[in-house]
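Predict the structure of Corrinoid adenosyltransferase.
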Amino acid sequence: MKVYTRTGDEGQTSVIGGRVSKDDVRVEAYGTIDELNSFVGQVISYMQDERFADMKDNLLEIQHELFDCGADLAFTKLSENKFKVKAEMVERLEQWIDQYEEENPEIERFILPGGSIISSTLHVCRTVCRRAERRTVTLSKITEINPDVRRYLNRLSDYFFVIARTANVREGIPDIEYIRSKKVFRKSDE
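Done. Here is the predicted structure for Corrinoid adenosyltransferase.
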């Protein structure tokens, strides 16, 4: 099988149920998810240390789920019985967030992306995830989509933020606080 088909040379691509322009909102949404998946693969490649084995396992599962998100968005006609992204996946992300948050120090100010290479790359994942979510919201305004994809992306960006902080903790690197801000978060015991 050849990788190139020449079918897209005129600016069209196939989706499940037809063909659309390569700059179609649907293609933008799942294309941004694909971009995110590439950054997730990159951060996994940095996690050679055993301290990150649990994160690597989670992130590999997330890579599969990002493919599921893209597949669900590729349907031109809503087909709920074929959806791959389910509410349980969002709930599991929330459990992971809570688990990793226990390792992190209290947060008082906004955090600048940075610290270790792993943390920095996870922040890139977070911001690309937010863009994928925005593209998905735009798509949902013009056609019906699996709403669990939007929820999943929203929670996933929170997950990336939390584990970026956890990665710094595990490497003994403090978060970089945005110092031009007043304290905006309250400690949980206040």
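Residues 17 and 76 are 5 Å apart (CA to CA).
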